[in-house]
Structures are given as structure tokens and as C-alpha cells.
Amino acid sequence: MKKITLALVIATVMVAGTAGSAQALPTPILRGLPSVGDSLFVFPCGGSDFATTAGLVDVASGTIAGRGTTAVPGACIYNGDYDVTTKISYVIDNTGDHRTLATFDPATGSITPVGAFFEGTPTTYRDPLALTISATGLAYASGNYHDFYTVNLATAEMIPVGDAPALGLFSFDINPIDGVLYAISYNAGGVYTINPTDGVETLVGAYPASASAGMQFDSAGVAWFQNQQDGIRLFSATDLTQLESSQV
Fold first, then answer.
1. What pTM does this model have?
2. pLDDT of 183-227, one tens digit each?
3. What is the rounded distance in angstroms from the CA atom of residue 194 to the CA atom of residue 121?
4. What DSSP letter does each residue of 161-202 carry, written as one string?
5. 3-state DSSP helix/strand/coil percent for the chain, to nearest 5?
6. 194 and 201 in contact (C-beta within 8 Å)?
7. Where are the alpha helices (DSSP H) in 57-197?
8. Least enclosed by CB within 10 Å: which of 21, 64, 116, 210?
9. Mapping DSSP to helix (H, G, I), strand (E, B) and coil, where does residue 61 land?
């Protein structure tokens, strides 16, 4: 199945970069628009409906305008986030031998590596699924298994915080309005909140398994996420505890 991953880049001014032809998202279902000044970008993973390093979504029409250069064959970018303290966007690059922390330039579509994710000394490489950054610049990552980490954005070092039992937290972001970290389990389904101090999860809503593989909140607290059970669809929601019923 073709995949895209979601990342929301918040910027008050978008500088035009290299754009490709617009591609329609399959059967887009969109409610509302991102808050003024926000821009929604998607990235390829394992084949996509666009061939550039990133795509800028027009949520009114459901089309994607290519941004950047031609994507590396086999490119796979996982969910990242925007650091409001430094005004830098970060993504997880899963294209090479090790998953890499990288910066994303929304003006040009360029993705620049910071370094491979690692833990401890001697170095043990880690494979995070998603990255989120708090309003104070603290970064957190969901692990490939049950792990929950903080991340040093300057070095890509991951420091374990606790055990997050739900698997496959590709959809993982902090709501800027209430500061709550939400996650959707791809493997088991369900919507969770996560305590960032210890990684403890609380189930707060229903959602099917094998559905959501990317989620971002915009600056108004609206969650934008992907459902790939029936093609690739983009949705928006303001109440994640009622996420499953909001998609009809």
C-alpha cells in the first residue's frame, strides 16, 4: 500500500520553493482548515502519490503540491514536529541503515541530517517511530517497541523515560492548547494520553488498529491525521476521545 506520513509545519510566512505538479489525495475527507499561518506537509514512505521530498497539502481541495527535489528511491520519512522555541522543523528519516534525526526546511523541501538516533555509551542505535516537541522545546519520541524517550535535538541522543505499553505509536503529538501528549496505537488501536515524566499511558478513546500512521496538531489544537485503511485519507478532529465516531 502506498503510504504518506504527516507533519504540520507552523510558519507565518511560507517562501515559495521548488513545486511539482499537484496530486490529489485519494478520497480526501477534511473538516475545517489549519489555523491561519499553519502549513500542512506530508512526506513519502514506501511509495507515494508524489515524488518529491515533501508535499504541501491544500486542505481545501485535498491536493498535494510537491515541494523540494526528487525523493531518494525508497525514501521513508516518519512523523516529526516543529520546535516553536527555535522555529526549526524536525523529522525522522528512515531511508538509510539507521533512523536519523533531520531538519526540514518548508521553504525548499530540503531534509538535512542531524545524526543517527542513539542511546548510551557505547552507542546503541535506536529506531523511533515518531517525534514531538513541547512548547518549551523538550523533545519526546516513541520507541519501536514499548519505549518512551526524551531526545536531544542537537545530537539525536535518546534517553529512556519509561515504558509505553501500546505498540506502533506512529501518531504521536502534543496538543499546544492543553499541553497533553496524545498517541494512537497502529498495532492495537486506541487513543492514549501519555505522561511525559514516566511514559505511563491512559486509554481515552477508541480507534481501529492498522489505521493511523501520522498525526499533528495545528496551533489551534486541531488534530490532523491519516487513515490508510481505505486508500489514504486525511481527517481533522478537535476531540480525540471521540475520534472514531468523528470520521463518519
1. 0.84
2. 888 888 888 999 999 888 899 988 888 777 778 888 888 888 776
3. 27
4. EEE--SS---EEEE-TTT--EEEE-TTT--EEEE-TTT--EE
5. 0, 45, 50
6. yes
7. none
8. 21
9. coil
